[in-house]
Amino acid sequence: MLEVKNLTKCYHGKIKAVDNISFSVREGEILGFLGPNGAGKSTTMNIVTGYLSATEGTVLIDGKDILEEPNAAKRKIGYLPEHPPLYMDMTVREYLTFIFDLKKVDLPREAHIREIAALVRINDVMDRVIKHCSKGYQQRVGIAQALIGNPELLILDEPTVGLDPTQIIEIRKLITHLGRNHTVILSSHILSDVQAVCERVLVINKGRIIADGAPDDLSRQLAGANAMVVRVAGPERDVHKLIRTIPGVKAVNLLGKREKNAVEFSVEVAQDEDVRGEIFRRLAERNWPILMMQPNELTLEQIFVRLIEGGDDLVARQPAAPAAQEPAAEAPAAQESEREAENE
Ligand code: ADP
Ligand code: MG
């Protein structure tokens, strides 16, 4: 469905926002694009959707090059940009009609808009001015706009940003639902977003893909190794040396003395190695009992936090979390009925 090859984007000829990224997305997949702020997610999405030109690389949508056949390629994509281009003074219906005409969709207009409104559940606000809709509804209107023309591929950039927890759950549900009939790519800097919705995740950091897999497989990939903690009653230096020489062990670090005559090490092991049996046999040969041996696997959450905190100046340069665009003051009654509709 989508094939991205060796994509690179430099801003102002120097800032490399995207650095030689390649990936493909199969039809029907729900792919998460996970990365801290400044990782290059929006840049990639803007290029894939033809809104921005790449410095290098190609994008094929269903075999069509986004540069050579932009119209044919773009017709297959529905895009919700990070800052949806909503016309705040239009009603939802006016806006969707406007987008319909803009996209030159060849379908019965009223019926198509009605169908989409039902799908994203915005029936109740169709005649409300967009700026008077809650942020949750505005996001649904953004998704509705992307769905006009029945594109096969939906690209959603940070669809849950600025939403409250209830709205986040609703939007996740909606995306999962849309995933039944569409290929979906969504980006987020929030791990739980992609874990909840996606069957496959690309982790992107500093313009590069650093992991690609099912959410459950990522922590191993990102850690690049497994670690465990081993406590042994034996002479520090000799135990250290012995463990170090076991094939598959990448590093051994002394954690300190524990109990009486015992030392504790962290042992780093190559990704697909299991050295526990060998550690047991060799230490037993020397009569140095293992008092404890436990895996020290990082959770994906921990790894991701490290990634974000990892002295990444790109993160620091980003403005603080984009402020939720507060809709203009709403009459309490309107808010009330909207909340009901949203929870329904
Ligand atoms: P993300 O969406 O993952 O937060 P972006 O793609 O928005 O990341 O940004 C990637 C990098 O490119 C960041 O360092 C950002 O500051 C930089 N960047 C983004 N847009 C521009 C621009 N228009 N001009 C210059 N630099 C930009
Ligand atoms: Mg972004």
Description:
α4 packs across α5. A six-stranded mixed beta sheet has the order 6-7-8-3-9-10, with helices on both faces. A four-stranded antiparallel beta sheet has the order 2-1-4-5. A four-stranded antiparallel beta sheet has the order 12-13-11-14. It has 13 helices and 14 strands. It folds into two domains: 2-76 and 151-220 and 300-343, Rossmann fold (3-Layer(aba) Sandwich); 225-295, MTH889-like domain (Alpha-Beta Plaits), CATH 3.30.70.1340. β9 (200-205) and β10 (208-213) form a beta hairpin. The protein has helices at 41-48, 70-75, 92-102, 109-120, 135-147, 165-178, 191-197, 218-223, 236-244, 276-285, 300-309, 313-317, 332-343; strands at residues 2-11, 15-25, 30-34, 56-61, 64-65, 77-80, 153-157, 183-188, 200-205, 208-213, 225-233, 249-258, 262-270, 290-295. By secondary structure, it is an alpha/beta fold. The chain is 36% helix and 28% strand. Residues 311-344 have low confidence and may be disordered. The longest helix has 14 residues, at 165-178. The site of adenosine-5'-diphosphate (ADP) has 13 residues, from β2, α1 and α12. Adenosine-5'-diphosphate (ADP) binds at residues 11, 15, 17, 35, 37-43, 314, 317.
Question: Features of this protein?
Answer:
four-stranded antiparallel β-sheet; disordered C terminus; Alpha-Beta Plaits; alpha/beta; 36% helix; Rossmann fold; 14 strands; 28% strand; binds magnesium ion; binds adenosine-5'-diphosphate; 344 residues; elongated
